[in-house]
Amino acid sequence: MASTHPPRRGGEPQDGSSHRRRTRPGLVAALVVALVGVTVPVAWVVTRGDEVTITPAAAAKPAAAEEEPEQPQETSLWSSEERVKAPTHADRAPVELGTRFTAAKDGAATGVRFYKAPGEKGQHTGSLWDARGRRLAKVTFPDETASGWQEARFSSPVQLEAGQVYTVSYHSAHGTYVGSQGAGSATSGPLSTTSRNAGVFGYGGSAFPRKSNPKGYNYWVDVIFRWHEHRRPTTPRPTYTRWPTATPTPTWTRWPTEEPTSGPTNWPTRRPTHRPTHWPTSVPTNVPTDLPTDLPTDLPTYEPSPTVTVTRTPTTRPTPTHRPTNWPTWKPTPRPTPTHWPTSEPTPTVEPTRSQTPLPTPTKSPTGTAEPTPTKTPTKSPEPTPEPTKPQEPGGRSCDGFPTPDCTGVPPGTKLTTKALNEGRSYRVTTAGTELNGVHIAGDLLITANNVVVRNSQIDGMVINEFGPNTYSFKIYDSTVGPASGCNTLPGVGESKFTAERVLVRNHGDGFRASGDNIVIRDSFVRLCSNPGDHSDGIQTYKTGKGLVLDHNTIDQRGVKDITAPIFLTDPQIVDAVVTNNLVMGGTYSIQLKNARGTLIVQGNQIVDKSWAYGPVEADCDKISWKNNSIVTIDKDYNVTSVVKALPCAK
User: Fold this and answer.
1) Most distant CA pair in the chain: distance in Å?
2) Range name among 109-118, 326-335, 526-535 with the lowest pLDDT average
3) Which residues touch 487 (CB under 8 Å, ≥6 apart)?
């Protein structure tokens, strides 16, 4: 059977015939039907008497399919079917627990979920917060079960912007909750937790949870997120019309001699580029009733785009012990060596009263009893180590001995101008090179520009230079940080790339926060406090980095109940730390320096005798240049009255 597709290149009939015939009039209609019936580029047919002229037409395009409406999608970070295997913690104090998250697409938060711990009592409220700590929505959980996942929907969806950080939380007045240590990030569709410090908390009434734990806790608080997934319009597959079955047998004629020998320029590329010189002398009489089997194989096809299905990626979270700390939501807070601490630290055991019998060389008793105390020596303290050199800021003050409240903070007689808060409870600096001199900020100072200088000023809250994933450089001199009364759980000054000199930090749970490179703290005074559940530190580190200098400061943690250490440096990312000429008192251990690398110098420091709970020092002694450190007594004005003994390094 002869093929019915157009002639091949060269125009030779497929049956090899060279006869030429006139076209019958009835052929025109058959050709029109046949050509139009195929959804590939076709030609208009024009008759000239008995002859036929075929003019190529533009390629036929399928009609544009109407765009399908966007398809709503909804997801959460964790499945409601997921059974949480996490330890239960009973702090017995009101606490707000949350998760920081972001979305890759614009969408809306429609509700909040949390995993209820067995034994947890009372009614719970859920909240949604922006990165500035503003509450965007609040809802009460209805019809709670005894434990497991609880869910509540907001009265109306809250629109969220892609790429921004938000916090979802719930408040427990009973203070019993689940928490998993070392939890990694979680992702589900466009929704994911922040890369670090995702789990946050805050003790007290329902408020923005700012603090995070250095061990990376997950408190299993979830958001319900809805977005629209755009579905690409579908294009129907081309269909073909059957070849006519009742058409008279066509005959072919010679191409008119008056036509040009070259074909039109817009003939499809798979057609010959010139007109054939002969048509077939005959066509089969039994035209097939269905599509020819040898139609061109390169016809375009159009497949509908499949609907996108969001697959939740579960994240394995180890089950650690819990240890919340005191810092904003965006940073975790390192804690002491014990892997699990209760809500409140046990009351430290006071060491036995030391004997006054002098010994020529203090040694440990082989029986483990307390060491005798040598006879008191003159009040002169050991000669301070000359390194590091302390540059004096022009116009600054200096303390005759160790820093005290009288020679740090806002200089006496300074007239302060109040700055109106411009960012929630904060005053935010956004211009690089800004200098604040003689100002009073009745809240936090948020620094989001580089090379900011603060002088002779009072900040009632904290000074923080982290905003989102970025930190900004600043210097602060002769300024007071902290409220005049009460206790602010959060650190006074942080996080990285800052210099603090003659700064008075008062009534803060933590004094300085070191989280990054290039931190210098000199000639400053820190008086600490604590709230229930706090773990107070004079300086604490987390991902500290390089170039920490803590030189000639006074850190007083005496009488504080919930404590860790005045000097708490245990971050494995510490590289090159200098701790010199400081007067410290209090803490479980007064000086802790572990896990650090590089050049580590601890020299000329003095620890007040019997002020610690467990011991004066806990350190990796074999890594440290340890010299001229001692145990001393002081008077009420922080003057050293005696050197009790030299202080060797102890692990």
Assistant:
1) 137
2) 326-335
3) 507, 508, 509, 529, 530, 531
pLDDT for 223 equals: 96
As given in the structure block, the two tokens for residue 440 are 């009073």
CA proximity to 498, closest of 522, 482, 525: 522
What is the average per-residue pLDDT within 368-377? 37
Q: CA-to-CA distance for 160 and 329, rounded, in angstroms?
A: 19
Asked if residue 355 is part of any domain, the answer here is: no
CA-CA-CA-CA torsion for 242, 248, 249, 255, nearest 10 degrees?
Answer: -90
Whether 391 maps to a domain, the answer reads: no
DSSP 561-587: SSEEEEEEE--TT-EEEEEES-EEE-S
Question: What number of residues does the chain have?
Answer: 651
**Average of per-residue pLDDT values in the chain:** 74
Give this prediction's pTM. Answer: 0.47
Q: Which helix (H) or strand (E) holds 157?
A: strand 148-160
- Number of domains composing the chain: 2
pLDDT at residue number 320: 40
Task: State the residue for tokens 């896990």.
Answer: 595
Per-residue model confidence as pLDDT tens digits over 33-91 = 344 444 333 333 333 443 333 334 334 444 444 555 566 889 999 988 777 888 888 87
The sign of the dihedral angle between the CA atoms of 498, 502, 504, 509 is positive
In this structure, are strands 536-541 and 563-569 parallel, antiparallel, or unpaired? Answer: parallel
Per-residue pLDDT at 640 exceeds 80: yes
- Which domain does 431 fall in, by range? 417-646
Is 378 or 108 the better-scoring residue by pLDDT?
Answer: 108
Average pLDDT over residues 486-490: 91
Distance, in Å, from the CA atom of 12 to the CA atom of 23, rounded to the nearest integer, reads 18
Residues 197-232 have pLDDT tens digits of: 899 998 888 999 988 887 788 999 999 999 987 655
Alpha carbon of 306 to those of 138, 234, 312, 313, 467: distances in Å?
A: 37, 9, 18, 21, 40
Of 227, 243, 271, at which residue does a domain stop? 227
Residue 339 domain-assigned (yes or no): no
What's residue 69's pLDDT?
Answer: 52
pLDDT at 491: 92
Give dist(CA 445, CA 241) in Å, integer: 76
Per residue, the 3-state secondary structure of 165-187, as one string, reads EEEEEEEECCCEEECECCCCCCE
Across-strand partners of 441?
419, 459
The enclosing domain of 97 has a CATH number of 2.60.120
Helix (H, G, I), strand (E, B) or coil at 591: strand
Contact criterion met (CB below 8 Å) for 116 and 175 = no
Contact 183, 218 (CB under 8 A): yes
Q: How many Å apart are CA 166 and CA 152, to the nearest integer? A: 18
What's the rounded Cα separation, in Å, for the pair 600 and 576? Answer: 5
Going by C-alpha positions, the residue among 405, 476, 465, 493 that lies closest to residue 437 is 476
Identify residue 630 by its one-letter amino acid code. S
Cα–Cα dist 15/17, whole Å: 6
Domain final position from 180, 203, 227: 227
pLDDT tens for each residue of 524-542: 999 999 988 788 999 988 7
State the Rg of the chain over Cα.
40
